[in-house]
Amino acid sequence: MKSVIYLNRTYASTGETIQYLEMLFQTKSLSEEALYKNLRSSYERLSAMIFKFMNSVVNRHETPFYVKEDNFSYDVDLDTEICNQ
C-alpha cells in the first residue's frame, strides 16, 4: 500500500531521533539528564502512536466513498461505436 510509505518514513524518523538523543547524551553534548529523559520519553510515545496509527491504516483501510466505483462495465462494442461515428 503506497500510502503507508510516508508513515514508515515518519516512524523510522522517530527512531533515528531517539538514537541521536542517546548519542548527544552519551557524548555530553546534551548534559541535562532531565531534558534528555523528557525528550526521549516524548519521542518513544510519539513513535508508539505512529506505529499504532500505521497498523490501523493497513488493517482497516477502506477505499473512500468518492473513489469507489459502482458496478460499471467499461466494455465497448467497437463495431457499434465505429458505425455511429
SSE topology:
Layout: H1 4-26, H2 33-60, H3 78-83
Helix pairs in contact: 1-2
Q: Count the DSSP helices.
A: 3
Distance between the termini: 42 Å
Largest sheet, described in full? none
Per the principal axes of the C-alpha atoms, what is the gross shape? Answer: rod-shaped
Q: Please bin the fraction of helical residues.
A: 55-70%
How would you sum up this structure, described in words?
The chain is an all-alpha fold and 85 residues long. It has a domain at 4-59. The protein is 67% helix and 0% strand. The chain is built from 3 helices and no strands. It has helices at 4-26, 33-60, 78-83. Helix 1 packs antiparallel against helix 2. The two termini are 42 Å apart.
Structural features:
85 residues; mainly alpha; 0% strand
Quick rundown:
The chain is mainly alpha-helical. The protein has a domain at 4-59. It is 67% helix and 0% strand.
